[in-house]
Amino acid sequence: MSCNRQKFRDIRERFVIGLKDQKIYEGFLKPSRLVKQLTSPILDAIYFYAKKKMKKILLSLGVCLFAIETLSGQQNEIFVKDNAAIGGYDAVAYFKEGKPVKGIAEFSVSYKGVNWFFTSKTNADLFRAKPEKYVPQYGGYCAFGCSRGYKASTSPDAWTIVGNKLYLNYNTDVRNEWNKDQQGYIKKADSNWPEVKNKRYP
């Protein structure tokens, strides 16, 4: 007998004892026998009805949670920090200046539902004209992590340009490990990304 079923039985027993103490049926029939006969099918019916309804509720809840998780994963295709893509750093600056430079909200471009900040109107226009050229691979998530099948945050100074593509990693130590076999990790991450990009982060 399940725990929930036992709770219903306990409630019934307390109900029977309460009636007996109040002597409601005194002199008629034995309270425990009569009330058990009356309440048993009623409580059992309530139990099974509630159990049936609960299954439907849990099923509906599960569907809703799955939909929310899927939606969240889709919204997180780009690594967002401080309400901006890649933490507000200028993606174009990595190519032009060879270093991470913090952008500003004044020069922003919306791409894939996320705001990208830049240091100048020129950089913003370059990005707007050809975003796929400047957007870091794997949406700015850790390249090493994606090769392992998961999303991880990135540090702006843990960057590398390979084949005119920008790659970011969790930190410089992880980047050093990634650099030991760039092509191998890139190949694995490229293969994993179609699935990884829909995973929820964090």
Mind explaining what this structure looks like?
With 202 residues, the protein is an alpha+beta fold. It is 55% helix and 12% strand. The chain is built from eight helices and six strands. Strands 1-2 form a two-stranded antiparallel sheet. The chain has a two-stranded antiparallel ribbon with strand order 3-4. Strands 5-6 form a two-stranded antiparallel sheet. A hairpin with a 2-residue loop joins strand 1 and strand 2. It is globular. Residues 1-5, 15-31 and 66-74 have low confidence and may be disordered.
Radius of gyration (CA) equals 31 Å
Counting DSSP H or I runs of 4 or more residues, the number of helices is 8
Largest sheet: 2 strands, antiparallel
Helix share bin: 55-70%
Residue runs with pLDDT of under 50 for 5 or more positions = 1-5, 15-31, 66-74
Portion of residues in beta strands equals 5-15%
Outline type:
globular
Mean pLDDT: 80
Annotation, overall tally of beta strands: 6
Q: What structural class results from the helix and strand content? A: alpha+beta
Span of the ends, CA to CA: 41 Å
- Which strand order does the major sheet show? 1-2
Order of helices and strands: HHEEHEEHHHEEHH
Give descriptors for this structure.
202 residues, alpha+beta, 55% helix
